[in-house]
Structure to design on (394 residues):
């Protein structure tokens, strides 16, 4: 096994400004980091790494209040533009891992009824439960409106969003978690024909008027249609360790170790543990709280505090890494907490990279998240990926 170590940390939904094709997604004016900065935050570590240098690279430059463009950033800095069709978690992570999803995933209609009858018939027939909802909605809003009925008759609450998702919500005191997960597995197979990126289990607890979603969510993903960098590295005998929800996002393929955790603090602890264990190979980390707790819930203050907590974590993480380690910090899409609606936003994502072989710290705008995968291929000295340009020189 290779003694090299590369770490990719995905700040889930931390976009840095509207992409050139934002209009196609009705996302013109979305600037996750910049708009969140209006709530006030202090990010001294990310500033030193070069975060404040990135906005000037973008075609519609908009600074991040309180994060200066330092003269000599510690990391190489740039931005990445997504080329795949879509702005969801699966599309973003798969492109980071080397894929170009030019056709994208199927998105269900946003009005009632969202789902075709055959999907709901299969779900009801297999589980003995009827369905309610069947439209695009905020997850917290639809639970508030239909949760009491669900508790009365046990019907599944089914809904979608602007992403390619089939979501099933159920109260943990009404439906056991395993039954909810089994129901998602029932829907997963027929959803493959569309194809749908994710079937998501959305358990909740509480009483009418006080329902709360729990951290027992699970994602049941479509299987990647081509080998990702995870597959390529594991086939080459290099340890691939995922942290967070990434085992679900990649349909449990291409990884040799999984640390499935449900929030940022646990993901940070898992990464600390892996470093304490001197884990080598590729460590792929997702920090989910930005997206699930603050972006979708349109909470800019909470988003800002989450960024500050991550900045403080990075300050203690960086000194623990070996000088020849490769560290990449990026995101998978935007989720501007000040924007209309409750969905993801089509944005550039930040790119911060540390490795001693990088000479030019200005990485510019990278056309395709898959430059990350190509960089990993070069770092681990395996055959190049089909898409992307490495940041490193072999």
């Amino acid at each position: 096994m290779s003694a090299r170590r590369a770490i990719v940390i995905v700040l889930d939904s931390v976009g840095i400004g509207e992409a050139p094709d934002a209009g196609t997604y009705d996302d013109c004016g979305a600037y996750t980091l910049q708009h969140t900065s209006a709530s006030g935050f202090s990010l001294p570590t990310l500033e030193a790494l070069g975060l404040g240098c990135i906005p000037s690279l973008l075609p519609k430059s908009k600074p991040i209040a309180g994060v200066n463009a330092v003269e000599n950033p510690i990391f190489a800095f740039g931005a990445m533009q997504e080329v795949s069709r879509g702005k969801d978690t699966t599309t973003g992570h798969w492109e980071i891992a080397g894929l170009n999803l030019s056709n994208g995933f199927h998105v269900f209609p946003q009005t009632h009824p969202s789902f075709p009858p055959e999907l709901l018939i299969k779900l009801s027939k297999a589980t003995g439960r009827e369905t309610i909802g069947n439209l695009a909605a905020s997850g917290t809003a639809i639970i508030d409106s239909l949760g009491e009925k669900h508790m009365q008759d046990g019907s599944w609450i089914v809904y979608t969003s602007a992403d390619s998702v089939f979501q099933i919500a159920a109260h943990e005191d009404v439906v056991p978690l395993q039954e909810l997960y089994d129901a998602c597995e029932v829907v997963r197979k027929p959803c493959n024909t569309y194809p749908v990126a994710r079937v998501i289990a959305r358990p909740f607890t509480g009483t009418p008027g006080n329902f709360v979603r729990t951290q027992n969510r699970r994602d049941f993903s479509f299987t990647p249609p081509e080998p990702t960098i995870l597959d390529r590295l594991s086939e080459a005998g290099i340890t691939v360790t995922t942290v967070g929800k990434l085992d679900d996002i990649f349909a449990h393929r291409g990884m040799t170790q999984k640390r499935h955790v449900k929030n940022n603090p646990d993901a940070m602890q898992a990464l600390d543990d892996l470093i304490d264990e001197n884990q080598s190979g590729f460590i792929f980390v997702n920090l989910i709280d930005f997206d699930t707790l603050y972006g979708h819930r349109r909470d800019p203050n909470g988003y800002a505090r989450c960024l500050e907590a991550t900045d403080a974590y990075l300050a203690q993480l960086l000194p623990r890494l070996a000088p020849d380690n490769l560290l990449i910090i990026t995101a998978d899409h935007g989720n501007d907490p000040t924007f209309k609606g409750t969905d993801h936003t089509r944005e550039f994502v930040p790119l911060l990279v540390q490795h001693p072989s990088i000479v030019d710290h200005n990485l510019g705008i990278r056309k395709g998240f898959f430059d990350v995968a190509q960089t990993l291929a070069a770092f681990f000295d395996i055959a190049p990926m089909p898409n992307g340009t490495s940041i490193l020189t072999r």
Notes: The radius of gyration is 21 Å.
